[in-house]
Every structure is written in C-alpha cells, then in structure tokens.
Amino acid sequence: MMTIAVLGAGKIGESLLSGLLQAGYAPSQLMFTERYTQRASELEHQYGVDHTDVVSAARHADVLIIAVKPQDIEPLLDELCPYVAPSKLVVSLCAGLPTAMFEQRLAAGTPVVRVMPNTPMLVGEAMSVVSGGTCAQETHLDLAEELLGCVGSVVRVPESQQDVVTALSGSGPAYFFYLIESMIDAGVLLGLPRAVAGRLIVQTAVGSAAMLREGEGHPTIMREGVSSPGGTTVAGIRELEKHGVRAALIDAVEAAHDRSVELGRVHEDGEPGE
Ligand SMILES: NC(=O)c1ccc[n+]([C@@H]2O[C@H](COP(=O)([O-])OP(=O)(O)OC[C@H]3O[C@@H](n4cnc5c(N)ncnc54)[C@H](OP(=O)(O)O)[C@@H]3O)[C@@H](O)[C@H]2O)c1
C-alpha cells in the first residue's frame, strides 16, 4: 500500500493530512514530520497519524510532500536528500521554489512535482496547480493530482506558467477578500449593521461562485443577466467602469506576476531565497 509523508505539518500540511484522511486514505498510510513536539502530539491525537522524523519519512514513504515555508527548505533538504531513493516521488508545495532546485539536491532521476496551492485548502476548496520537473512522468503527475484532488481542484500547467498561477490563484483569495471587505464597508456606509452586510456579501460571493462553477454561463453573460435596462445594477456597473476597476484588477494581477518573476530570479541558480 502506498505511503505518504507530509513534511512540515503547518496550516497547509495539516489541511492536506485531513483531506487525505477524509478521502479514504488510512492513517497507517500517512505520516508527518513537525518540529514542535507539542504540535506533533496534538496532530497525532487528532488524526491518528504517526509523527516521524525526516530520515524515517525519506526511507519509508513512497511520496514525500514538502510543506515547509520556502525559507525553511535548506535545512530540510540537507536532512532529507541523502536518504531519498529515485523511486520516490517528491511533491513540493513551497511557493516559488523551482523543481530544478530540488533536482540539483536529490539523487539523479528523482521525480519532482511542484504545486502552487492556495489558502482555501484550509476548507478543502484549494485551487492547486501542478507542474512536473524534468524526471516527472505522467504517472507522477497523475498521482500528485490525485493527492491534491483530496483538498480541492487541480490543474496542470508547464512550470514556466507558475508565475502567472501565483498571481491569479495564489494571490487571488486576497483580491476576493479585498473586494468583499469593500462591499461590506459600502453596506455599513449605507446603514446596515456590519454583521448583516457581511452575511449578505459572503453568501452572495458563495452563490455567484457556485453558479460559475456549475457552468451556468460566461461571467459576462451572467452579469448582463442581472443588469436590467435602466436598473440598479447597470447604474453600479457604470461607476465601476468610471473608476477603472477592471483595469485596476488587471494591473494588480500583472504586478503580482512581475513580483513573482523577480522573487524567482533568486532561485535561478538553484538557491532558495525569500
Ligand atoms: N498558506 C498558504 O495559503 C499557502 C499558499 C500557497 C503555498 N503555500 C506553501 O505551503 C507551504 C506551507 O505553508 P504554511 O502556510 O502551511 O506554513 P506553516 O504554517 O509555517 O507550516 C510549515 C510547517 O513546517 C514546519 N517545519 C519547518 N521546517 C521543518 C523541518 N525541517 N522539519 C519538519 N517540520 C518543519 C514548521 O514548523 P515551525 O512552526 O517550527 O516553523 C511549520 O509547522 C509553504 O512553502 C508555502 O509557500 C502556502
């Protein structure tokens, strides 16, 4: 039976463990590493999954999922790499770290899959985007997709597109939170209690997203569908256009992309950075 080790059981690592268990993986197939013993004991107690050390994980697990912060990657790789056989699959969830950086440290031929997840993984609604390194075969990508599929949706792109992914789905939750925050403020300005405005807007966001996800139509058609002639919605849309909100969003995503490219230059020589 395939065994999976989650290295670094922080927010993302714990969400993944929880999602894998909910999807039917047995606790005996899973293990995790964690620096703080108290947190490790709490997780063992909560999920019934064994805490282990990095070397045992490298020796015994078939799939090694790295979920430490990028700035913690160096000491982890120092400990891990000497014990990882090329038959193992290494899946990195570390934002911005290229597969080449792992390949340079691991035994030749070790398959590496890079994943850019996002915060909604915490509620099982992640958008995870996977890219294979030079030694990752179709079966490795399929397996990574299956595992990440336990905590949301998964899309596969060439690694060269990961900076766009970072700007769109990686940073995306922050942009939606910002929009929602602004709409709640508008409700408060117009006299609604904040809690009521919050409830209205959050459910409106969830409902709108559900319609989009269920393929009710193109967003433009759906927006036109709620904009009656001479009505309230179109009056609001005119203000959004007047204030350049569409252009501002495009600029925001472009700025996030450019920053991702800039941060990525640090790793071009295979060294980890911020
Ligand atoms: N959170 C997000 O929305 C998000 C989105 C996209 C990508 N990611 C990526 O997901 C990864 C995890 O993020 P996170 O938010 O879950 O971070 P986090 O909460 O800080 O979790 C990382 C965990 O790894 C532990 N750790 C660090 N070095 C270790 C080692 N050598 N051995 C064992 N455990 C170790 C940390 O312990 P300590 O508490 O001792 O530091 C911490 O518990 C990051 O690489 C991040 O780039 C996160």
UniProtKB/TrEMBL annotation:
<comment type="similarity">
    <text>Belongs to the pyrroline-5-carboxylate reductase family.</text>
</comment>
<protein>
    <recommendedName>
        <fullName>Pyrroline-5-carboxylate reductase</fullName>
        <ecNumber>1.5.1.2</ecNumber>
    </recommendedName>
</protein>
<dbReference type="GO" id="GO:0005737">
    <property type="term" value="C:cytoplasm"/>
</dbReference>
<keyword id="KW-0560">Oxidoreductase</keyword>
<dbReference type="InterPro" id="IPR028939">
    <property type="entry name" value="P5C_Rdtase_cat_N"/>
</dbReference>
<feature type="domain" description="Pyrroline-5-carboxylate reductase catalytic N-terminal">
    <location>
        <begin position="3"/>
        <end position="96"/>
    </location>
</feature>
<dbReference type="Pfam" id="PF14748">
    <property type="entry name" value="P5CR_dimer"/>
</dbReference>
<dbReference type="InterPro" id="IPR000304">
    <property type="entry name" value="Pyrroline-COOH_reductase"/>
</dbReference>
<feature type="binding site">
    <location>
        <begin position="67"/>
        <end position="70"/>
    </location>
    <ligand>
        <name>NADP(+)</name>
    </ligand>
</feature>
<keyword id="KW-0028">Amino-acid biosynthesis</keyword>
<dbReference type="GO" id="GO:0004735">
    <property type="term" value="F:pyrroline-5-carboxylate reductase activity"/>
</dbReference>
<dbReference type="InterPro" id="IPR029036">
    <property type="entry name" value="P5CR_dimer"/>
</dbReference>
<keyword id="KW-0963">Cytoplasm</keyword>
<dbReference type="InterPro" id="IPR008927">
    <property type="entry name" value="6-PGluconate_DH-like_C_sf"/>
</dbReference>
<dbReference type="InterPro" id="IPR036291">
    <property type="entry name" value="NAD(P)-bd_dom_sf"/>
</dbReference>
<dbReference type="Pfam" id="PF03807">
    <property type="entry name" value="F420_oxidored"/>
</dbReference>
<keyword id="KW-0641">Proline biosynthesis</keyword>
<comment type="function">
    <text>Catalyzes the reduction of 1-pyrroline-5-carboxylate (PCA) to L-proline.</text>
</comment>
<keyword id="KW-0521">NADP</keyword>
<feature type="domain" description="Pyrroline-5-carboxylate reductase dimerisation">
    <location>
        <begin position="159"/>
        <end position="263"/>
    </location>
</feature>
<dbReference type="GO" id="GO:0055129">
    <property type="term" value="P:L-proline biosynthetic process"/>
</dbReference>
<comment type="pathway">
    <text>Amino-acid biosynthesis; L-proline biosynthesis; L-proline from L-glutamate 5-semialdehyde: step 1/1.</text>
</comment>
